[in-house]
Amino acid sequence: MLMNEIIYTITPHDPAGHRFLVEISIPVPNPEGQKVSLPAWIPGSYLIRDFARNIETIEARCGTKKLLIEKTDNHHWQIQACQEPLHITYTVYAWDLSVRSAHLDETHGFFNGTSVFLQIHEQEEQPCLLDLRPPKNIRNWKVYTSLPEAKKHPNGATRHGFGMYSAPNYDALIDHPVEMGTPQVVTFKACGAAHEMVFTGQIPNLDLARIAADTARICEYQIKFFEPETHKAPFLDSSDRYVFMTMVTGKDYGGLEHRSSTALMASRNDLPTLGNPEQSEQYRNFLGLVSHEYFHTWNVKRIKPKAFAPYNLNTENHTCLLWVFEGFTSYYDDLTLLRAGLITQEQYLGLLGKTIANVHGLPGRFKQSVAQSSFDAWTKFYKQDENAPNAIVSYYSKGSLVALGLDLTIRNATHNEKSLDDVMQLLWQRYGRDFFNKPADGLKEDELASIINNATGVDASDYIARFAHGTEDIPLKELLATQNMTLSWKNSSNTPSLDVRTKVADNACQIGSVLENGAAHKAGLSAGDTLVAIDGIKVDTGNLDMLLKRYQPGQSILIHVFRRDELRSFTVALNPPVLNECVIEPMQKTSGVC
After folding, report:
1. Nearest to 254 by CA among 392, 398, 96, 390
2. Strands (E) located in 491-538
3. At residue 368, what are phi and psi to the nearest 5 degrees?
């Protein structure tokens, strides 16, 4: 054990009150006074979240002497000078059931290090020990994390046990989330590397074996994709295992990547049950989520934009490249399912068509590029309001289409001898493979075109300028034709269109957003209006489409709404049904992009 290791201790102190107790022992604090802080955001979720607001009490001691501790801004504290080891004790309120923060009750505990572990300024590179302690009066809890056990420490934890774990520095400490409790668990190996899948929540009759077998195919494919010769898993630079931690609820969905693990949320209806071999659409979505977060083990956790190498967790880290790191990952998540044999080509093309339709249904794609969307993630994408469909574009979904178009462009230019696969592999070799073993470095903001040229011989600078930094629609119909694919449009309904998105609010049908230059916009309807009646017939939460079917495009209808508490009426000229279904089909069987 090194004498200067910073020791963190965390205890599920009050499960009923959702409080963790955290203690930190700093052997050699700054003799002029120690500065500490809690991260303002968590990597992978680009929004200032002010995790420090959940610290309820905090105190510091130098030996037995209580020290003055002053909060200097939203996230920082300054502690009085101490010439001996410094001890900090604080409580963290943990009642955020998400992949981003911390959650504790009598059934389980979960935390990300960014929500609970203070950063010790000027000592971020010091090795850390983490002492995980069990809750009092709750038995049988075990620990699930990719953080390595401190095997050389006298109190080193055994596998899944409470005790000491180790991290080489603060950045590693906060990049291994922890789940504790009594979850359902299954293990498997992919390319010889150990993987665990942990499912927390009430999930009767869960088919763990099927999930493990399907996930193993995803992991095997992606490992071999990036390391075709060695088949070496990337996380072995940080841990001897990869852990999928899934919180299962009635309706949630999402994920957050880490260097050797991922935190997921899923609906129990997304997961397969024993005795039911059918693959539901919901289960395909879950496998897509697994694929997406696992691909991040390479793309964004090790291949990073230079702006993230290293992270500054005290403020926003702006980059115009999230379309590469999230968009490319979104392109490869479903493509992995196809290549791993988990979905058919027809199912893959259906998923691709849905993404194209979703992007093309939003006017905001003509106002904001995916590069701008990346830069403005902190203030626009993560803070969407009722006007978002008209003002922004997703660097996830349109980013995936930019990746598709780029892949097709490269394949066409090289007669299918090169592809986006070659670009990803070069990025891995240049920036990712040794990321944690050398000074931090990442992809420069203007470097991608050069990488593409080096990997494939294709000059993609004009493509990037037009479709990533510009707002043109990608000519996917023409590009797909080069791979013997057709793209066509149809409407999924013959109902005339109001050009709005609705939602249920206060047990009524309310307009969630009004699409710019659509029928509702031209008539004066607004987001937040509660639909009351169409031509004197009541609108409820389920009959709007049925009412609109009575009319023809171009006909005018009288709509009554409540705007706040005021009854208003509007005459709306209905538009034709929207071409909202994109259909991609092969002209003939081809190896191509699939």
Report:
1. 96
2. 500-505, 508-514, 530-534, 537-538
3. -130, 130
Q: Which of 480, 475, 478, 477 is closest to 462 using CA atoms?
A: 475
CA separation for the pair 99, 84 (Å, rounded): 37
pLDDT at 198: 98
Distance CA 114, CA 111 (A): 8
Contact at 8 Å (CB) between 164 and 157?
Answer: yes
> 266: number of CA atoms within 13 Å, CB side?
26
Q: Which helix (H) or strand (E) holds 477?
A: helix 476-481
Sort 470 into a burial class: Cβ within 10 Å, 0-12 / 13-18 / 19+. middle
Give the number of other CB atoms < 10 A from CB of residue 151: 11
Dist. CA 306–CA 308, nearest whole Å: 5
CA distance 80 to 62: 9
Q: Which two tokens stand for residue 206?
A: 């869960």
Tokens representing 219 are 């992991």
Structure tokens at 407: 């892949």
- Token digits of residue 134: 């069990």
With DSSP H G I counted as helix, E B as strand and the rest as coil, what are the percentages for the chain, rounded to 5? Answer: 30, 30, 40
- pTM of model > 0.90: yes
CA atoms of 248 and 176, how far apart (whole Å): 20
Starting at the edge strand found earlier in the chain, the sheet holding 108-111 runs 102-104, 108-111, 178-181, 142-144
414-460 per-position pLDDT tens digit:
999 999 999 999 999 999 999 999 999 999 999 999 999 999 999 99
Burial-class residue 102 by CB neighbours within 10 Å (0-12, 13-18, 19+): buried
Q: Could you write out the DSSP letters of every residue in 553-580? A: TT-EEEEEEEETTEEEEEEEEPBPPP--
pLDDT digits (tens, 9 = 90+) for 241-257: 999 999 999 999 999 99
Q: Phi, psi at residue 290, to the nearest 5°?
A: -60, -45
**Residues 6 or more apart whose Cβ sits within 8 Å of residue 161:** 142, 143, 149
For the chain, the farthest-separated pair of C-alpha atoms sits apart, in whole angstroms, at: 82
* Whether the Cβ atoms of residue 77 and residue 36 lie closer than 8 Å to each other: yes
Please count the residues of the chain: 594
User: Which residues does residue 585 pair with via DSSP β-bridges, in sequence order?
Assistant: 486
d(CA 250, CA 201): 10
How many angstroms separate the CA atoms of 391 and 114, rounded? Answer: 31
Residue appearing with tokens 């002010």: 50
Neighbours of 498 (CB within 10 A): 25
β-bridge pairing 193-200 and 102-104: unpaired
> In this structure, how many other beta carbons lie within 10 angstroms of the beta carbon of residue 200?
24
Among left, alpha and beta (phi > 0; psi -120 to 50; other), residue 157 is: beta
Six token digits for residue 344: 């058919």
Here the tokens at position 342 are 């988990």
Instruction: For residue 184, give the amino acid letter.
Output: Q
**Both tokens assigned to 449:** 């075109």
